[in-house]
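Person: Please comment on this record:
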Amino acid sequence: MLALSFVNLGLLGGIGLASIPLIIHILNRRRYKVVQWAAMDFLLKAFKENRRRVRFEQLLLLLLRMVLVALLAFLLSRPKASSDELGGLLGRRIVHHVLLVDESGSMGESQGAGTSFGIARRFVVARLEAIAHTRPTDLVTLLRSSSEKPEIVARPVSLKLVADVKELLQHSTATPDRFRLPAVLDRVRQVLRSLEEGRKTDMTYLHLFSDLKAVDLTNDEGKLSDRILTGLRGLEPSKLLISRCGMTRSADLAVTSVNLRGAKCIRNQRAHFDVVVKNLGSTSSGEVEVGFTVDGRLRSARTVPSLAPNAEHIEAFRVRFTKAGSHWVEADLPRDRMPIDDRRALAVPVAQSAKALLVDGDPNDSEERAETFYLRIALDPTDDGSSGLAVTRIDENEVSGHEFSPFDVVALANVASLDDETVKRLSAFVQGGGGLLMFVGDQVEPDAWNHLFWRGGNGLLPAPLRELAGDMDNPDKVVLRPDPHPMFGDFQEELGRTLGFVNVGRYLSVGSEIDGVPEGNVPEGSEILMRLAHESGPPLWVEKPWGKGRVSLCLTTADVSWTPWASNPAYLIVARRAVDWMLRRDDLGPANCDARSAFRATFPAARYQGRVRLGPARDDPDADIERELTMTTTPAAPDTFVLEAAPNDAGRPWNTAGAMRLELETSDTTRENVFFTVSPWGLEGSPRTIAKRDLLEMLPKEIRDKTQFVDQKAQVDALSDEGEFWRGLVFAVLAGLVLESLLAWRFGRR
């Protein structure tokens, strides 16, 4: 049965105007009088002979004019019909329904008693049920945004399919992954290309179930991402059906990152962590409490003040780890509607101690007179590493065969010269992240050091050496730079006062006209941290980054030969702060994964057994269930276990964010824990969504005309492929007018 719908249903009543030609015809028949006239007898006789033909012609024109008026009214009412309703006239068309479900972290937002993902789940099931009842011959493909492959590909719709999808989604939740719609559209295009010729369909309907977060869909200019537009144009969907899952919010406070301030964590030494709290909402936040826990215990709290929209607040926490090994910390905010960004964890390795190598260029039989004596005392007073820094001292003639990689920082004290190979290895050590502290002395020749370490600005030295300067009888005081520097941290003000009592008799000046560095200046990229005499005096301490590491140059001695500085408490502070500043930074990346990354590590096979148990670091009912993992060795490294902890399902992200625990069993059956974390994208909780009107304006016209927003009540109507056929009606009206004119002209000539 043909069923029609109308855009302008009220105008359909205009069909009644089709009676106007009939009324006019009837009225015209009553406008004349019968008058007897002899001259008309001949005409009357002729009329009676042609009466039937004339009446037929008049009725034909009358009927044609009535049909034209009815068609015009029908046209203005804008009728619509689908291929199914037209049935055999157009032939039944098979539609391929591609369902895209957003599984990003923001879909875990609370909505009443459920979540945005729960709304999406109900939308999908209702949509499939509507397809099964109204379009039983169509095909369905289901793709979750966090899956690399679709779970269902071009399956004929059926109640069994609906039950399978319901079961699949029932065990699915929002993940820590980000919603990357361009990548999802690429996967859809691959699916459509891979369909067999016999399974190709007439049309493709793209169904999107998402909370439509602006951070996922727009670029920096607030427009729809070019990659999304390219993906939609490449798919050319017959319809784009969008179902919004969730409501717009104006507020969200998030922990966007937890950062280790220093280079590494060391046992019994204070570690500083910065917790970044950001207001992602469009309204100011109130005061809240941010908590900080260590290994799931020892929670401390700070108050975060009210934040304006898009404002950040950094809260510092200090921690002292009493045991070396793997640990984790976590910052938390009061739970709100967007739980994905209320917590953020960080896994950190804690070392027994950092390691420093001191190279003494002027050793002495008397330890107190050695060049590195005071430096060693400043770095490790008890000589047992309990200060957090284990110091190894060697003479200049031992350095050529010494390996630098086990150390975090190397100090050269009055070293006259090194061979080229050692300089090359030392440069690689610093570029790889190590620190280098250089002290000059009476054995240092500026030209020789410039040749070894300056190399025209391409070497380790932060500045070219010039000549010996200063007067032991008229020393200059040390002046700390006035603006803050991370090397000094909280000690800068106190250190500046203390250094005012330190005098330096001799030093090496810097500068090279040949290299374009005026005397007393340093090249671009280097910084002067201390000067002599006054704030614009000769440099005393210069530093620069070099690759991933840093180099500091002290232009006087590490002992008391040129300055009594070593007898001042400021020497202890500067030496230790300089070494801490230059320590090789621990790479925390491998132990702190994003939503899709796997944790990989190696362990000595002689110490551990191959069984590992993976589970959440804290008791979390929403976290992955615990499961067993097995470490393996490789033929290339039979003495080393390789462990990979990946999400449970291949091609999928982790189900939850937070700290995870790996429980290893040692050869003597004791257990050790290794921690890693899974973190969402920092802006995942951004509450701003794209309004329906704004999204339609962002779409190009050819896609906008095919786009429809679908709510829970319009599931069936959205599936209809009906369309207006007004073009055909226009041609029918025009053809009728031409035919009426031709017939009226033809009949009138007779």
